[in-house]
Write a structure and sequence with these properties.
There is one protein chain. This protein is α/β, with parallel strands linked by helices. It folds into two domains: 134 residues, Glycogen Phosphorylase B (Rossmann fold); 52 residues, no CATH class. Strand 5 and strand 6 form a beta hairpin. The mean pLDDT is 91.
Length: 195
């Protein structure tokens, strides 16, 4: 795999940062070209802001980090949900269609890199990044979760907050926030609460 990556980078005519990762890519760095730098552990959200494109396995977190940084993305899926994320990137035009690692050649990877660096793909990655950055996805997800709670899981005093306590000998359910407020006001003893 290391030799394949080195050859693809040469064929594409680019420089590359290659993460050694769990697979130990380039472990001995034998024959490493001068236009390739081997990396250890580096935070993706920081690194991807400093590159022209990203090539990776297509895990959800790595995919999100690349797109949030506005970088065109090449996905080489190995298993699980990785082909799905690669297909979503391609569907949005923010990268080429994923190519499974079993079918990967230096020539096909070089072509994927060239597609990713094309002006149209770069522009679509920036557009997708802007859309994702404006979604407020974490807020929407948290609101959806709280809005979907069954009534028997919501705080009796602060609706929409998850109940984590029950006042003993009653059906009063309390969120952590409600329990702390009541305890601080001297209205409830923590020994009267059951998780």
């Amino acid at each position: 795999m290391t030799r394949l990556i080195f050859k693809a980078v040469k064929l594409a005519g680019v420089r590359a940062l290659v993460s050694k990762g769990w697979g130990g890519l380039g472990a001995d760095e034998a024959g490493k070209p001068d236009n390739i730098f081997m990396l250890g552990n580096v935070p993706h959200d920081w690194l991807f802001q400093h590159v022209s494109a990203v090539v990776h396995h297509g895990g959800a977190g790595t995919t999100a980090a690349g797109i949030l940084a506005g970088r065109p993305t090449v996905v080489v899926p190995f298993f699980g949900d990785q082909p799905f994320w690669g297909a979503m990137i391609a569907r949005a035009g923010a990268g080429p269609k994923p190519i499974p690692y079993k079918r990967l050649t230096a020539e096909s990877l070089a072509e994927q890199i060239r597609i990713a660096l094309s002006p149209d793909t770069v522009e679509k990655a920036k557009i997708l990044s802007a859309e994702m950055n404006s979604e407020m996805g974490a807020d929407s997800g948290a609101n959806y979760f709280h809005d979907s709670l069954p009534m028997n899981m919501q705080c009796s005093l602060i609706p929409g907050h998850v109940a984590v306590w029950r006042l003993k000998k009653t059906n009063v359910l309390l969120s952590a926030k409600a329990a702390i407020i009541l305890r601080n006001k001297g209205l409830v003893d923590m020994n009267d609460l059951k998780l």
